[in-house]
Amino acid sequence: MPTPDVARLLASDRDHLWHPYSSATNPATTRFVESAHGPRLTLRDDDGASREVLDAMSSWWCAIHGYNVPELNAAAEAQLQRMSHVMFGGLTHEPAVRLGEKLVEIAPAPEADRPKLTRAFLADSGSVSVEVALKMALQVFAADDRPRRTVLTIRGGYHGDTLHPMSVCDPDGGMHSLWRGTLPQQLFAPLPPAGLEADPDELEAWKRETASLYREHADEIAAVIVEPLLQGAGGMRIYDPECVRFLTTLAREHGALVIFDEIATGFGRTGTYWAADRIGITPDILCLGKALTGGYLTMAAVLCSDDLARTISERTGAMMHGPTFMGNPLSCAVALASIDLLDTERLTRAAEFADTLDTHLAPLRELPHVADVRTLGAVGVVELTHDVDVDAATAAALDAGAWIRPFRRLIYTMPPFVCTDDDLGTICEAVTAAVHACAPASEQAP
């Protein structure tokens, strides 16, 4: 293929495209990706020079198998020969049916006396899956004389950018405070104490405050929604599984539903297939996305039990949601191939990332401008004491051989599962370089 005119394309990008979380009139620096293979991106500068770097972000956590994956390519190509799309209203097809079977098969194992997740609603993005999950919860109570219309969650969370999911994102520190007063008013329990094994006194204090808030509004609450174990875009915080168990107990005591948003945590990212597996809780509704298709196509899903599906259907007649690209055959075929790849040693390999990431990143705790270093499964996070200089951090990481996407005070990595030990070492060197690039002037080497 001819070499692209990168300078012209970047100029046109600035003139006509609006990137996520960015100003249209004062855009951040955008880099040109020419191709990708395995865990690597090939970037090309506007002067024509190219370089290959590791993608430490897995393209916002979805490209778990890397890029240009033979098995996923083959699945997409084979499905293209049959059909790329057909409406899901009144029609069905083999990839969707097989994906439904597979999702039910790999769903978190049910607790004793709890129904298994046996019904899948195929959505078209993670945010939409949360929208659907919240609709499900609200529809369960919609026909009651006193319908429940409130959702309880914890501070520090992030659940998407569409309107209803924004209402359960952190109302103060999140990205959606601009919409305060417009969004539905939800209930926010305190920020859980940090760490997989929280301080017992802090945990008990959190439980008392949370229980008091819940019981005050119990008759209004339709559901509790959380990102189990790891809060993603809200702050990359790791918290105690006991917090999730406690919230689940409160919800079930008062007849509310439990929703797990595993869009970021599922498919092996936190060290087990689902974060729910480590917690030992089966939610009533499970949202999944991102890694579902290995980053090839946009797709998400919402899982629930037959009992819940029957309740919604009998009370309100139908699930009132229907995306145009719901059950897209091409996405379903690639999702099946991506899940099959996780049945190999790849899932075990991802679980082993934590030790490597911790070994490489732990020394950064000694830096005065580093507030915390934390790892969980294939997630490594360095939190600074001040906001990241994104341009400086990104440039330093690229010079060290990896692409990162810092935000607020966080420099972090969620690498593809196909990274070798050497790749992980390079990624950690890049994170380290980015951290040093953000040091205050008083800490800079002379």
Quick take:
With 446 residues, the chain is α/β, with parallel strands linked by helices. The protein contains 15 helices and 16 strands. The strands form 4 sheets. A 7-stranded mixed β-sheet has the order 4-12-11-10-7-5-6, with helices on both faces.
Note the topology.
Layout: H1 6-16, E1 32-37, E2 40-44, E3 50-55, H2 58-61, H3 70-80, H4 94-106, E4 117-123, H5 126-142, E5 150-154, H6 163-167, E6 187-189, H7 200-216, E7 221-226, E8 230-231, E9 237-238, H8 241-253, E10 257-261, H9 275-279, E11 285-288, E12 300-305, H10 306-316, H11 329-342, H12 346-351, H13 353-361, E13 370-375, E14 380-384, H14 390-400, E15 402-403, E16 410-413, H15 421-437
Parallel strand pairs: 3-15, 5-6, 5-7, 7-10, 10-11
Antiparallel strand pairs: 1-2, 2-3, 4-12, 8-9, 11-12, 13-14, 14-16
Function: Catalyzes the transfer of the alpha-amino group from S-adenosyl-L-methionine (SAM) to 7-keto-8-aminopelargonic acid (KAPA) to form 7,8-diaminopelargonic acid (DAPA). It is the only aminotransferase known to utilize SAM as an amino donor.
InterPro entries: Aminotrans_3, Aminotrans_3_PPA_site, BioA, PyrdxlP-dep_Trfase, PyrdxlP-dep_Trfase_major, PyrdxlP-dep_Trfase_small
Main location: cytoplasm
